[in-house]
Amino acid sequence: MRHADDHRPHLSDLADLMLGSTADGVFAVDEHRRILAMNPAALAAVGRTEAEVLGRPCHEVLRFHICREQCALRAARDSGRPIANLPVEVLHRDGRRTPTILSSAVLRDARGHDIGGVETFRDLEAAVRADAFDARRNPLGELLAVDPAMRGLVDLLPTIAPTDSAILLTGETGTGKNLVARAIHALSGRGDGPLVTVNCAALPESLLESELFGYRAGAFTGAERDRAGRIAAAEGGTLFLDEIGDIPLPMQVKLLRFLQSKTYEPLGDVTPRRADVRILAATHQDLQELVEQGRFRQDLYYRINVVNLPLPPLRDRPLDIPVLAHRFLELLGSRRGKQVASIAPDALDALVAHGFPGNVRELENVIEHAYVFCDGPVLLRRHLPERVLRGGAAPRDAADDLRRLERRHLEAVLARHDGHRGAAAEDLGIHRTTLLRRMKRLGIRTPERDGRRRDPGSMR
Known about the structure:
By secondary structure, this protein is an alpha/beta fold. Helix content is 44%, strand content 17%. It folds into 4 domains: 16-130, Beta-Lactamase; 148-310, Rossmann fold, CATH 3.40.50; 329-391, Helicase, Ruva Protein, domain 3; 394-458, Arc Repressor Mutant, subunit A (Orthogonal Bundle). It has 21 helices and 16 strands. The protein has a 5-stranded antiparallel beta sheet with strand order 2-1-5-4-3. Strands 7-8-11-6-12 form a 5-stranded parallel beta sheet. The chain has a two-stranded antiparallel ribbon with strand order 9-10. The radius of gyration is 30 Å and the shape is globular. The protein starts with 10 loop residues before the first helix and ends in a 6-residue tail after the last strand. The model is unreliable at 1-12, 128-137, 392-399 and 448-460 (pLDDT under 50).
């Protein structure tokens, strides 16, 4: 009696079946780079039969331009990791060229010896279609996070994005607030609608009003025809107000009126228009402190701050630095053509040790600098900017010095007033809650009469 297992194909037959059914070209070579096997898609791409290619050097059959410049398998061997998505052209025997993306991996035996390699290539047009599908399927896009400091925030997005509540993104410049805003929009029910961004810091008050609300012809000198504003452009989608802390107070009143009523009037018009938009806002400033200073309206603050998402600086998410660095390398390779497969361990150590006061934006700048100077498949420590090789001492030490000075100053004022925070805040000319936040940020605890020390956040 035959068992069910008897009907199963042999493992080698299964491999042949899989390779024969894929649309990607696949071929294997030995340690001398002679072709051992080539699947039907690869044979069709070069216009050859199996008998014509077996045993021949791969560079004679594929005729990739990189074979002359730098062998992809050699780069994979030297770097110790596979090469992915290398742009190359496959040359058909009749002279036709097909743009593709190539991936290479070295095969090693149990002792780690190089015994050959496998390369796959995919039609570039098909790859672009697949990328477009992935973008729809993966709305997080380039928002990469493995460090718990950032991962927790990213994991929250699918929960909070579908609501229409206003979200305020806070954090230092360069922490990725724009990426988070795009992800929230994509994950929301408005993902098929427009995402319209307004940089509030880049426009003076007069221009900001017309940019947001639009205007009618004749509303002011130079207004020759009607122009719709950003609110109208965001209809059915999301309006992202970046650097909202820079909006002047008179403009804050008009913005608040719009947020309360969801109606607005273009300049030069008296007819209210209703808008269906979701509001996201971002700032690198402490809006609560601006409220206490009278520079930001408290009622507007509550309108835009229904959900607050503080983004951690890059120095507080060190596990993300290697992930982001490799991603920036991949993007540079796809845009510029020069492939850098990996980053040397000591170069990664230098990156992780750097303070990155400019956050993700600075890391991207550092990787591009190193990419320009890199002359091989591996990005080395010597390719990094001098400021990184110094451990980022200059900017980080300056910030540390300022922090120490601020701490000493606050401690001296508190001591002068015997730990009474209200009196100390009055002496400093700031609100009591502002003093509490600064004490908490600087790790200052005030002594009590019984000798205990308490965290400012727990004191009444």
